[in-house]
Amino acid sequence: MKLIAACLIKIAGTAMILEVEQMVEPKLHKLRSILEREGLDAAVITNPSNIQYFTGVSVGGSILVTPVDGSSQLLVPPLEYHRAMRLSRLRDLEIRPYYKYNLKGFEAPGLIRKGVYEALETVVEELGAKRIGSDLSASPAAHAERVKARLGNRLEKDIAEEIARERSVKDPDEIEAMRNAARVAEKALSKAIGELKEGISELELAGLIEYYMRMNGAEEYAFPIIVAFSENAAYPHATPSGRKLRRGDLVLVDLGARINGYCSDMTRTIVFGEPARRTRQIYEAVVEAVEEGINAIRPGKTGSEVDSHSRRILEKYGLSKYFIHALGHGVGVDVHEAPRLSPGSKDTLKEGMIVTVEPGVYVPGLLGIRVEDMVLVRQEGSEVLTSLQRIWVV
Question: With 0-12 CB in 10 A as exposed, 13-18 as middle and 19+ as buried, what is 277?
Answer without folding.
Answer: exposed
